[in-house]
Amino acid sequence: MTSYQNFWNAEIETLLQQLDAPQSLEDNIVDTLRSSKRTGIFPNQIINALRIGLSVKEGNQNMAFVASMQSGKSGTIYFLCNYVLPAIGLIKEFESILFVTSMRDTDLYDQNCRVLEREYYDCISGDMKPSVLKVMKMSDFFNHPNPHKVVNEYDVQLIVRDEDQYGSGVESSFELAFFAELRCRIPDIKLLAVSATPYDILDAQFTGATDVDVIVGVRPPEYYGISEMLEDNVIEDIPEGFRPIQAQDLDGEEIFNIHPKTEEYVNFLNTFESGLGIIRESNTSRAIELRRLLKKEYKNKCTTILIGSDIACDFSINEGIKELSDLILKRGQRVVLIIVQALTAGKDLGILKEKVRFGIEPRDKQLANGAQGITGRFCGYHGNRNFKLMASRGLLEHYAQFEQDWEIFADDEWRNNLLNNNVKGLSTHTKFVKTQVEGSFIPVEQIETWTYEQLLSEKGREALSFIDNDAYHRLLDYFESTFYNVSTKGVRFNQKGVTVRIASGYNQASNRVYKNWECNLASNFGNIFFKKNPYQYGILISNYPIDDIRNTLGFTGIKIIQSGKKEWRNQETSVQNNSMYGNNEAA
After folding, report:
1. Span 79-108, mean pLDDT?
2. CA neighbours within 13 Å on the CB side: how many for 198?
3. How confident is the model at residue 144 (pLDDT cuts 50, 70, 90)?
4. Residue 136: which CATH number?
């Protein structure tokens, strides 16, 4: 077995124990994984679902599930709701879970209905059973005639909010529908935000406006994402002022020509027997002109189609994807797809990813949509490495840093670099500003440092008297190669009043354990551990061996940090979050 297989076997077993799950759940996990190609559920999704289930069981009201684009978030939610939560008694018969699609997008809604509302197989009874998930458009959630009625009608126990950064501002209907009305009437209703870029709820967690439990999705070795694309150098930085077509003024008449870079990329597509190239245009009129020019220039080499919501487009988004599949997969053609405000978060190209040859993504002013657009649609589980992307490298490099370490979005230097690259905000409602506001501060009262060898002694165990024996042995296991040599991000310590950071959960460039190791009694406990809700103890764990190249500290062991009483101080930040998770002030 590979290190990763050993890891997910051990992680699933640990999570089942922490959940005190019945044997039936373990049996259904084994049955589901045995038929992964049929069920579409894989080990990383099982682990993610169990981690979220543990968070729900612990009583958290606001949760954020952060996972890479096209990594299997829908499958995670499907398994969580139909298998995990019912098995541990948190969803009973005839109760349901509401999945709200944040964008008013019919195609995405239909896709979610197919994936999430499909029946599931229970290997214990041998029966197919109806999904407990109810998918609803945001607009229907607003007007049914009210969210309270929806929750009562379907006996909703949990609301899952897809792509959290959309429609989330204070002025949005979700703010009024959920926080201003539903939470007032049903204070214990739970919310799970699901996204690769849920920046507004993460910012609320950082500033202390709302207590949020963040669950990090597992990133399997076979996943190919933006970090890997940058590493493989398949992304070319978009030229300044680039547009797929250029305009010239000739005797008072505007004349359009195909940009040389656009020609280069289309020519690259035409070196393949079949395949897909995607270009985003900013408005329909320019897209129509680009279509005309490409058809004229390449009429015998490739097919050009335009998708979008305007009547002048060849197809709607959903119809266009179906047409692409027919032209490329069944008829072996080369196709240039021009999109206008389409193909964003949630859209899945499926097996067409194997046939992608190029993408041109001009959006570079907002981190979420710049990453989630064409580049994000190329992410996932496929073997295609022979394609080209033109996009904002600076923006995507910042997203890759977030993808590897989600807490970096609160780093002042990271934010300032984004702003200097002319990126105006993290998401629709999380904009960059510079201001002074009040914020929470949790003082550090005491710090102790212990080597790994000392932890094995009686005195070491006594220093950790605030954790039970299971947690103590779990902590020692973190120093084993079977643990630190795999992706351990998101592992939960599961000890009340204690939060941990583990070195092997971070990459070398932004290792939060080593960056915070020199903290002192003047430090903010909440910044060291990214926790504004109360924890009595925090533990920094340097679990790599001293001679391991990844151990830049030159120390193997732990640092125990005891927190004081939370207080409020003036602190500086550079984000204004107009989301429903906090108030409409700079935060």
Report:
1. 88
2. 30
3. confident
4. 3.40.50.300
Q: Are 183 and 150 a contacting pair, CB within 8 Å?
A: no
Q: Give the residue numbers spanning the domain of 505.
A: 441-569
**Three-state secondary-structure class, residue 511:** coil
Claim to verify: residue 181 and residue 236 sit in the same structural domain: no
Residues 511 and 516: their CA atoms lie apart, in Å, by 9
Query: Are 409 and 450 within one domain?
Result: no
Is 38 domain-assigned?
yes
Residues 172-192: tens digit of each pLDDT: 556 667 777 788 888 889 999
Q: Select from 192, 216, 240 the last residue of a domain.
A: 216
pTM over 0.85: no
Q: Which element (helix H / strand E) includes 75?
A: helix 73-79
Q: How many domains does the chain fold into?
A: 3
CA torsion angle 368 370 375 379 (round to 10): -10
Q: How far apart are CA 368 and CA 103, in angstroms?
A: 14
pLDDT in tens, 549-559: 999 999 999 99
Answer yes or no: do 382 and 451 share one domain: no
Residue 587 lies in a domain: no
> Tell me: the pLDDT tens digits for 266-291?
999 999 999 999 999 988 899 999 99
Mean pLDDT, the chain, as a whole number? 87
Are residues 390 and 506 located together in one domain of the fold? no
Count other C-beta atoms under 10 Å from residue 254's C-beta: 9
Which residues are within 8 A (CB) of 106 and not within 5 positions of it... i.e. 6 or more apart? 137, 318
Angstrom distance (rounded) from CA 423 to CA 366: 5
Q: How far apart are CA 175 and CA 167, in angstroms?
A: 9
162 contact partners, CB below 8 Å, separation of at least 6: 99, 100, 101, 102, 112, 194, 195, 346
